[in-house]
Amino acid sequence: MILKNAKIFSEGLVHKGAILINNGIIVEVKYTPDEKDYKKLFEKNDGNKVLDCKNKLILPGIIDIHSHLRDMGQSDKETFFTGTKAAAYSGITTVFNMPNTKPPAISGKQVNIWMEKAQNNINVDVGFIAGVPKEIDENEIKKIMELGAIGFKIYPLNPLNDIDWDNTENIQKILNISSTYQIPLFIHAAFSISDKEKDRILNEFKVQEYNTLELHDRLNPVEMEEKYIEFVIENYKKHININRLNPKNYPIVHFCHVSCIQGYLAIQKALKSEHSLKISFEITPHHLLLSHEIILNENNYGKVLPPLRSSEHSQFLFNELKDDKVSLIGTDHAPHTSKEKSQDYLDAPSGFPGFETYPLMILNNVFNYNLSLENFVKISSENPAKIFNLKNKGFIKEGYDADLMIIDKVSKFPIRSQNFKTKAKFSPFENCNSAVQIWKVFLRGTEINNENIISNGKIIRASYKV
Q: Annotated catalytic sites, by residue?
C-alpha cells in the first residue's frame, strides 16, 4: 500500500511525501516525490493499493502505557474487544494493560489465562503488566516473566496480593527482583491518610460547601503522593548503595499518573542528582488539563485516583510538558458502568475512560499552538517505544511497523461520550471542544478504525534472562 499526498512527521519535522507499506512494514518513506519516484514506489507496491491522504498529517500510532482493559470478571465494564476498539478509533495502536482483574493477575496461571482471553480479541497490540505474586514469590515471578509480562504493578492503597507496600523490607525485595531481572516496576504512589484524619475531613465536609471532587482530593492529598514517591526513591538509592550496583543493574521504576507539583519535583530532583537512575514517570491527560474545580453534571464522572487536583497543579504540569520536561503520557483508561458511577460519592469507584479523549484534547492543544507537534510525538510514541524497548514501534522509519494515525484539523466540535466505542459512556471531558479529526488508523498497515475491524492485535511479550 502507498500513502500518497501526505504530510509526514519524522525526526522532528513535517515533510510532504509518501509511504510505501508491504506486509505491515514501512518499506520506504519518500519526501517530495516526483513522477519518477512514484513510478518506483508503484513497482514495489505488493498490494497495489493506493490511498490519497489529501494533504493530511501522518503521525506514528500512539503508545498508551497505562490502561485497564477490564474483561476477566468485569466484562460489564469493558471487554478486550471494546477497549481495544476504543483505542483503535483513537489512533492508539499499542496499550499496556493493568492487572486489577477478577481474580487479580498475580500468578503465572492467572496471567496465562488473562493473555489467552485476549488472544484473537484485541484490535491493537497489548502488553500485560502483572501484579506481584503473594509473598513476593520469586519462582512465581519467574513464571510470569517467562510469559512475557512487561512489568509488575504495585498498588499501595489496595494491594492485589496482601503485601504491605508501606513496608521497607517488601520494597527492598521487589527492587531486588527488578534489579536482578531488569523488569520494570509500575508504582501507584500514595500513602493512605489515617482513619482519624479521614473522619475529620468527612465531618468538615458536612458543614462546609465544596464539591465532592475537592473532597476526594482532600481524602487523597498531594502530601501522601509526594511522601510515597520520596519513600520509593529513598529505598531505591539505599538498594543501590547497599548492593554497590553498577548503573546497568539499577532497578527500573516507573511512577504512574503523577498528579501534583510536589511529587513531580521529587522525581526531577532525584533524576538531576544522578542521571543514570532508571526512573521514569507518566502524567495523564486529565491531570494536565482538568482540575477539581470543573463543573460536571455528575461529579463522580470526574472521580479518579489520584484525584483531580487544584488548577495550580494542572497548570504547572502542563507548562512542564510544554517545556519538554515530561517524557510520557498514560491515559489510565479505567471504564466503569454508569450505574456504579451514579452511586453516592463514597461508594462510587474511581476512574473513567481515557482512550477517546486523549488525542482529541492533547492534539487540540497542538493545533492551538499551546504544545509543539514534536513534543506530542515524543511523549505519545517515540519515548514510550524507547523507554520500554518496543522494537520497531514509535517512529515513521523504514523497517518499522506501519502503526500510523492520519489526522486533520477541522471545525471545532464537542466531545460526546455517547459516541464512544468503549462501554463506558461518560467523561469529565464531556462537551469540551476539539478541532482534531482522526481520519485513518493503521496497525501494521491494516486499517483498524472501521466497523469491519478484524481483531489482528498481537500480545507484546518482553524477554528476560530468567
A: 332
- The DSSP bridge pattern shows strands 62-67 and 92-97 to be parallel
The kind and range of the H/E element at 6 are strand 2-10
Peptide bond before 384: cis, by omega within 30 degrees of 0? no
- Report the pLDDT value the prediction gives residue 48, as an integer from 0 to 100: 87
Give the CATH number, domain containing residue 127. Answer: 3.20.20.140
pLDDT tens across 17-56, in order? 999 999 999 999 999 999 999 999 999 999 889 999 999 9
Cis ω for the linkage preceding 247 (within 30 of 0): no
**Gap between the Cα atoms of 183 and 206, Å rounded:** 46
Residues 19 and 80 in one domain: no
Separation of CA 100 from chain center: 15
Same domain, 22 and 108: no
Q: Which residue has the higher pLDDT, 209 or 462?
A: 462
**Can you give the residue range of the structural domain that contains 158?**
61-390
Provide the grid cell at 378: 515524543
- What cell was used for 375? 513534543
Q: Is residue 401 part of a domain?
A: no
Q: pTM for the complete prediction?
A: 0.97
| Assigned domain for 453 exists | no
